[in-house]
């Protein structure tokens, strides 16, 4: 007997989060965000991210980009799980992401 399975993805539309600050360290470039359910609750689906701070000129291009909110850091990946680095980043603007809570994957849709 088949068991019905309900999978909800973006049932209330696409949420948007906006970066509040940027921190460049020797190992990462971290964009900080206010508290948001995308980071705190089980969530699978697409969402928009508005990046409002530019990465400072002269930042090492091999540093990975990380999103941080609620004390949780998420490394951004692209196809095949490759980490997004400063060299891949296009600057301020609006980006589309997909997050899969079950695999803890945050992927830039490019």
Report how far apart the termini are: 40 Å
Number of domains: 1
Give me the side-by-side strand order of the main sheet.
Answer: 1-2-4-5-7-6-3
What's the average pLDDT?
Answer: 85
SSE succession: EEHEEEEE
Strand content: 35-45%
Helix content: under 10%
Could you say which overall geometry the principal axes of the C-alpha atoms support?
Answer: globular
Low-confidence stretches: none
Number of strands: 7
Radius of gyration: 15 Å
Q: What is the helix tally?
A: 1
Describe the structure using short key phrases:
110 residues; seven-stranded mixed β-barrel; 1 helix; 7 strands; globular
What does this protein structure show overall?
- By secondary structure, the chain is mainly β.
- It has one domain.
- The chain has one helix and seven strands.
- A seven-stranded mixed β-barrel has the order 1-2-4-5-7-6-3.
- β1 and β2 form a beta hairpin.
- The longest helix is centred in the middle third of the chain and has 4 residues.
- It starts with 15 loop residues before the first strand and ends with a strand.
- The model has no long low-confidence stretch (mean pLDDT 85).
